[in-house]
TrEMBL record:
Name this protein carries in UniProt: alcohol dehydrogenase (NADP(+))
Cofactor(s) for this UniProt protein: Zn(2+)
Origin superkingdom: Bacteria
Transmembrane regions: none
Span of domain Enoyl reductase (ER): 19-346
EC category name: oxidoreductase
UniProt-listed Pfam families: ADH_N, ADH_zinc_N
EC number: 1.1.1.2
GO terms assigned for molecular function: oxidoreductase activity
Length: 351
C-alpha cells in the first residue's frame, strides 16, 4: 500500500529530563491496515506532561514529545479501517494501544491492561520503539484507540477532554454522582474545573474546596453550588460529615485525616491527582464511618467516547488559553504557578 503519511514530523520535545522543550522532528510509522493518520490541530498541556518531562514520576524516555490531549482531523485511513473516514474529527488520549486480550481490555478498561497500556508518549510500543505524543503535527494510531469528537465540540476546547475530561468523568460516574448526591471537588485547575462542570451536569450538588477564595466567582460560574477555602480551619468544622464523594485533583500532599472527616458514612475520597510525594493517613479516619479511600485513572476507550458525547450533549468544553508552540516552556512555568484558567492548548499549526 502506498501511504502519504510523513516518515518524520515536526514536534516539540524535551531532549533530556528537566531541559526546556525545543523544536525537532520525530519519526511516525507508515499507515498500516487498521491505522489512521491524524492531522493534529490542537494539543492540551496536562500537568502530567510536566511531571514526566521533568522525571517527577520516575525515569523517562528521552527525547520526549509530551501530549496526550490530542484533537485533529483524519488525513488518511488504512485499507482495513471501518470506524473513520478522511475528514472526521477525532481525538487521542493517554494511551495508543493495549494487549486487547486480558480481562480488563475485554471489559473496556484498557487503562488497567494487565500487560500495561502503551502510553501516547514516554512509552515503548510493541516493536520496542518509543512513542511520541501530541506536541507534534501528525500522529498515526490504530483506529480502535481513537475516539470520535462529536459535531458541536470545537477541536480546541475538546482537546483537554481527552485527559482532563475523562479523568473526572470516570470517577464521577463510577461513584454515582447525580441528583441527591453531595460532591466536592478539591482544586479548581485544569482537572478540577471539568469536575465541577461534569458533576453539575450530572445533577449533583457541587462544592469546590480550594486553597483560597481567589477563584470563587469562576467556580460558581462553572456550576458549583458552594465554594470554600481549605486554608480556613473553620471550613473543616462547617463541612464535617457533609459529602458522599470527594474527588481530589491536586498534585500535592493533603492532610488526609482532615479531608476524610468531611465524608458522610460510606462516603468516598477519590484521588485523580498524583503527587510526587507520599501521603500519610491514620486508619481510624477510614474505620470511623466505613469510608473509602480510592483512586481513579482516566477511562477506557468506550467510556472516553461516552464522555465526549455527554459533553457535546450538555455543551461542555474546557476553559482554555490557546498558545503558540514557542510558548510551551513559559506555559509549563505558569502551570506550576497556577497561572492558567484553566488549560493551555497548543495550536499545532505553529510547530
Amino acid at each position: 500500500m502506498t501511504t502519504t503519511a510523513p516518515t518524520s514530523v515536526a514536534a516539540y520535545a524535551a531532549p533530556s529530563a528537566k531541559a526546556p522543550l525545543e523544536r525537532t522532528t520525530v519519526p511516525r510509522r507508515p499507515v498500516g491496515e487498521h491505522d489512521v493518520l491524524i492531522d493534529i490541530k490542537y494539543a492540551g498541556i496536562c500537568h502530567s506532561d510536566i511531571h514526566q518531562a521533568r522525571d517527577g514520576w520516575g525515569e523517562g524516555i528521552f527525547p520526549m514529545v509530551p501530549g496526550h490531549e490530542i484533537a485533529g482531523v483524519v488525513a488518511e485511513v488504512g485499507p482495513g479501517v471501518t470506524k473513520y473516514a478522511v475528514g472526521d474529527h477525532v481525538g487521542v488520549g493517554c494511551f495508543v494501544d493495549s494487549c486487547r486480550e486480558c480481562a480488563y481490555c475485554r471489559q473496556g478498561l484498557e487503562q488497567f491492561c494487565t500487560q500495561g497500556m502503551t502510553g501516547t508518549y514516554n512509552a515503548l510500543d510493541k516493536n520496542g520503539e518509543p512513542t511520541y505524543g501530541g506536541y507534534s503535527t501528525h500522529l498515526v494510531v490504530d483506529e480502535n484507540y481513537a475516539v470520535r469528537i462529536p459535531d458541536g465540540l470545537a477541536l480546541d476546547i475538546a482537546a483537554p477532554l481527552l485527559c482532563a475530561g475523562i479523568t473526572l468523568y470516570s470517577p464521577l460516574r463510577h461513584w454515582n454522582a447525580g441528583p441527591g448526591k453531595k460532591v466536592a471537588v478539591v482544586g479548581l485547575g485544569g482537572l478540577g474545573h471539568m469536575g465541577v462542570k461534569i458533576a453539575h451536569a450530572l445533577g449533583a450538588e457541587v462544592t469546590v474546596l480550594s486553597q483560597s477564595l481567589r477563584k470563587k466567582d469562576d467556580g460558581l460560574r462553572l456550576g458549583a453550588d458552594h465554594y470554600y477555602a481549605t486554608s480556613d480551619p473553620a471550613t473543616f468544622e462547617t463541612l464535617a460529615g457533609t459529602f458522599d464523594l470527594i474527588v481530589s485533583t491536586v498534585s500535592a500532599p493533603l492532610n488526609m485525616d482532615a479531608y476524610m472527616g468531611l465524608l458522610k458514612v460510606d462516603g468516598a475520597f477519590v484521588n485523580v491527582g498524583a503527587p510526587e510525594e507520599p501521603n500519610a493517613l491514620n486508619m481510624f479516619s477510614l474505620i470511623n464511618g466505613r469510608k473509602t479511600l480510592a483512586g481513579s485513572m482516566i477511562g477506557g476507550i468506550a467510556e472516553t467516547q461516552e464522555m465526549l458525547d455527554f459533553c457535546a450533549a450538555h455543551g461542555l468544553g474546557s476553559e482554555i488559553e490557546v498558545i503558540r508552540a514557542e510558548q510551551i516552556n513559559e506555559a509549563y512555568e505558569r502551570v506550576l504557578a497556577s497561572d492558567v484558567r484553566y488549560r493551555f492548548v497548543i495550536d499545532t499549526a505553529t510547530i
